[in-house]
Amino acid sequence: MSVVPSSTCRHFEIRPAFTPDNQLALTSSINHRQLHLRPSREVALNRSRRASICPKIRMATVDEMLVDRRTIVKPGDILAYDLVQGAEVRWSYIMDRTAPEPPTAVLLHGILGSRKNWGTFARRLAKEFPKWQFLLVDLRCHGDSASLKNRGPHNVASAACDVLKLLGAMKLTPRVLVGHSFGGKVSLSMVDQVPKPLARPVRVWVLDSTPGKVRAGADGDDHPAELISFLSTLPKEVSSKQDVVDALLDHGFSKDVAQWVVTNLRQMKINGASSPSLSWAFDLNGISEMYQSYEDTNLWKLVEDVPRGVHINFLKAERSLHRWALEDLHRIHVAEEQAAEEGGGVEMHLLEDAGHWVHADNPDGLFRILSFSFQGF
Question: What is the pTM of this model?
Fold first, then answer.
């Protein structure tokens, strides 16, 4: 694979990151310099057969120039991402778009997560399926996307719009969407808003999330709403990760969740110099809105009227944080039968020996279940 040179961009930096197995990962991070941009040309997306939730979504044509061997890319503000490519992928939307577009999968995290949650898993997929590339995204208000000035409301639909805009800027048509928890509903909303531009057939994986009402687990489980509420009481700057872990444990949260949450802490810089203080790499107020939308958003209509060529897969964790009501399971099974008759697909899967954090609790089992979506290329 040819080496992609480092490229400085007005909105994000693309830099090569080679993994031990020689896969290429293109990484973006937000650049905070003042922007003076020309408007980018836009090409309208095809409309859905459903009423679009976000009808003004457009697929941006990327305006790029070569200056001193550096590529200047000028789309509107887009989400931070990692692009993990298999060893046989030769395509680059920055340097060479003449090569055939490889099959692409989009991996979306849940509330209070980040694209880094999927890093190890994506590299494993890229090693097993070297013709594929995997787009890992920081959703709005999360990770390196938290600094973007996204307009509200902060909800499932707007988060889906953001990802569609990113795909438009990169001129990608994903064949697979994988979303964990909140990210699962975002994946469904993407299909609901603009299904036609998505590649046919497209497989959607909704990991441990139902399309409708979110039901809390048993007493003593780590409820996200309670976690968000508790984090709002902590100072915006802290002296150590261990102090936060201890506070979470004292408040009754599990050790696993406490250690996961502090991965969102970043060392602060003052006048370019590192500071001993740590700050949160998310917009907690925006995340609170997003979680409320996750509880309220109802996408059963999409599941019960699946677009032709789309296959929606639900995966339930055996020890799920959420309650999967018998009514939900029955409704999904009915949708399975109906979709099969109409050219779409709905399927239910069970991941044994796993709690809500499926890609951490049982990565081998999840890998086996997801793998058939990437075969045949």
Answer: 0.80
